[in-house]
Design a protein that fits this description.
Length: 346
């Protein structure tokens, strides 16, 4: 990766119901990375319209995700927080990448298959092209590191393939401009930890998701202490007590999930959690998990509620971040146009 300045980029869709999976798989790591890297965090509103263009209140949902970023501890002054549609470079670079990516590559994307379901002919072209927009998000800033949950791994591989093909297709022109190791970095995914894939509280084999019809399947960042307690107490489990070793979690997806959540929220590992709770009944473990979840998530939810009451403030944070993001993006778009041979103004 030498030659590229380390830069973190990630995005979250404003599709409502930000939940514990988003927090543990993504947002909490965004907060930590601020200490070691320059970071750009984007509310990806253009991605949010790929499934359904017309939404009840996209702007409110965009502000809510922004509020979650701020409430979780992201500092919009030291880093950049903005919404995707305010920076035109995302859509522009997507078009170039549409001409880099191959149909065969996109046809392999499992998220498209899941989201399009049986009626694939009726899915939007935007949903199909979603991974090219995501590659553009990252590479517009020539970001080197991308923290995401496990479910985004395949999209990041596609991003790498796009960077490599663009670098190869234009190798001579890129070298002539002094970019010896390619114009775009081959981005590193940052995926991992005990909660890279948080599962539904109702079914340990399904991902915790914003779109699950049962609200009991997830803990929302806006849930109050009572809601958190009820959801944890109702979470599906099996009749056995907790094992003392991780191996004992095999084939017990619900137990594994709750232990992973506890480890994620307490910044420990499943092995350490089982050292403390091995042999315990779920009722006791769930009580401890309720206390931990309320202590960690309660203040975030309360701060989000406070922030969303002042949409003007949130909009000004997004406007400031967008202006700073656009300044970086414009340089990339100018370079890319020159490399491809598109005549540009000034
Ligand atoms: P999305 O809400 O789909 O935009 O996702 C935002 C971030 O949360 C991405 O980095 C996802 O990979 C991550 N994420 C979403 N659901 C989960 C989950 N159940 N477990 C862990 N990470 C998740
Ligand atoms: N596709 C991601 C998700 O659903 C959101 C996203 C869009 C993203 N652009 C990105 C994540 C760029 C990381 C980097 O979770």
């Amino acid at each position: 990766m030498s030659g590229f300045k380390e830069l973190v980029f990630s995005g979250v869709q404003p599709t409502g119901n930000l939940h514990l999976g988003n927090y543990l798989g993504a947002v909490r790591r965004f907060v930590t990375l601020q200490e070691t890297h320059d970071c750009i965090y984007c509310v990806v509103d253009l991605h949010a319209i790929t499934a359904t263009l017309s939404q009840p209140d996209l702007a409110a949902q965009t502000r809510e995700v922004t509020a979650a970023f701020l409430a979780a501890g992201i500092d919009p002054k030291r880093h950049i927080v903005f919404n995707q549609s305010q920076v035109p470079g995302h859509a522009e670079l997507t078009w170039i990448f549409n001409c880099v990516a191959r149909i065969g590559w996109l046809n392999r994307m499992t998220q498209f298959k899941e989201k399009a379901g049986k009626d694939r002919e009726n899915a939007s072209v935007g949903l199909y092209d979603y991974p090219c927009l995501m590659a553009a998000d990252i590479l517009l800033y020539r970001a080197t590191h991308v923290p995401v949950g496990e479910d985004q791994k395949q999209h990041l591989e596609l991003t790498r393939d796009i960077a490599i093909k663009f670098n190869n297709d234009f190798a001579e022109k890129i070298a002539a401009r002094g970019h010896g190791e390619g114009y775009f970095p081959v981005t590193e995914p940052l995926i991992g930890g005990p909660a890279a894939r948080v599962m539904s509280l109702r079914d340990g084999t399904k991902k915790m998701s914003k779109s699950d019809p049962s609200d009991y399947s997830r803990i929302n960042l806006t849930d109050d202490a009572d809601a958190i307690a009820q959801k944890v107490r109702k979470a599906k489990t099996d009749p056995e007590p907790l094992p003392s070793e991780e191996a004992g979690l095999a084939k017990r997806p619900e137990a594994e999930n709750l232990v992973g959540i506890y480890a994620g929220l307490s910044d420990t590992t499943p092995a350490e959690v089982l050292r403390d709770f091995g042999g315990a009944q779920f009722s006791a473990f769930k009580s401890a998990l309720v206390d931990l979840a309320v202590a960690k998530l309660g203040p975030i939810g309360a701060e989000m509620a406070r922030l969303v009451k002042d949409p003007g403030h949130i909009d000004s944070v997004l406007a400031d971040g967008s202006a700073r993001a656009a300044a970086i993006a414009e340089r990339t778009i100018a370079d890319v146009k020159d490399i491809v041979g598109l005549i540009r103004r000034g």
